[in-house]
């Protein structure tokens, strides 16, 4: 690990895998939903958005004039695939929103800085190239769960868009589920065994430390009621920080859901999180 000592309580609070009785069963359900989504939803696969890394995305339900929502998977930055996250597509596609599900290079082979770079590159690519696929790209909508919630926050953060050729505030709706918005606690967990973060990483890449002063983005936050305290605390703190800046934020309560099955609800066109996200997206169009 890094020079930071493991704190058993903090490690417990952020251990998503052990927060459920059977991780393999939870993961298996999401794979099953994703396999069904890939079979049933129109898809353009393996669109490379970052030639340097080779990272690609799958685009579901593209249609003329449709807004686009970019889904960023979780897995503590070291696990996960776009195919295994196809569950994020059907609910919004059925509501008239195209969904891009992206891959990114995984830790520990790459740093968190590189992962954040690839996610921001995907946003810029969709904004630049999406209109050729018929998409409405004046606003790019984003979302993710767990590590993907952190990366959603990294997209909302200030200070990067100009370097990626983006003029102004291009982010519309943002759905952040069970995210980590201040990285500092993770320095004292087993996660840092593969992430190798330090206080410089915390300062530069913690979304809660880079909330924009001005934005018209609409942040939708949620965390499963059955999740561990670390994720509950992070969501509340990020919510409060957005409110303090006077920005638009909606918190959706999901009692009875855990760290994993909360994401599976995105496959249902009538699910609470899908409706909230659809409404936020359509307000920009």
From TrEMBL:
Q: Which Gene3D superfamilies match?
A: alpha/beta hydrolase
Q: Which residues form the BD-FAE-like domain?
A: 65-152
Q: Which domain of life is it from?
A: Bacteria
Q: Which GO terms describe its molecular function?
A: hydrolase activity
InterPro entries for the chain: AB_hydrolase_fold, BD-FAE-like_dom, GDXG_lipolytic_enzyme
Sorted alphabetically, the keyword list is: Hydrolase
**Matching SUPFAM superfamilies:** alpha/beta-Hydrolases (SSF53474)
This protein is called: Alpha/beta hydrolase fold domain-containing protein
